[in-house]
Amino acid sequence: MRMRIMEISVGAFILAGMMALVGLALNVSGLSMSSSDDTYTVYARFENIGGLTSRSKVTMSGVLIGHVTNIDLDTDQLVARVEMEIYDDVNFLSIDSSASILTAGLLGEKYIGVSVGFEEEFMQEGDYFEDTQSALVLEDLVGKFLFNEVSE
Amino acid sequence: MSHFEDVIIDIQQLSFSRSDRPIYNNVDIKIPRGKITAIMGPSGTGKTTLLKLIGGQLNPDSGKIYLDGQNIPTLNRRELFVIRERMGMLFQSGALFTDMSVFENVAFPLRVHTKLPEDMIRDIVLMKLEAVGLRGASELMPSELSGGMARRVALARAIALDPDIVMYDEPFTGQDPIAMGVLVNLIRRLNESLGHTSIIVSHDIQETLGIADYIYLVADSSVIAHGTPEELKEVNSPQVRQFMEGLPDGPVPFHFPAVDYHDDLLQRGV
Amino acid sequence: MESLARLGRFGLNNLASLGRSGMILFQAIVARPQPLTMFPLLVQQIYFVGVLSLIIIVVSGLFIGMVLGLQGYTILVDYGSEQAVGQMVALSLVRELAPVVTALLFAGRAGSALTAEIGLMKATEQLSSLEMIGVDPLRRIIAPRFWAGFICLPILAAIFSIVGIYGGALVSIEWLGIYDGSFWANMQNSVDFADDIVNGLIKSVVFGFVVTWIAVFQGYDCIPTSEGISQATTKTVVYASLAVLGLDFILTAVMFGEI
Question: What integer pLDDT is reported at residue A55 of this predicted model?
Answer without folding.
Answer: 72
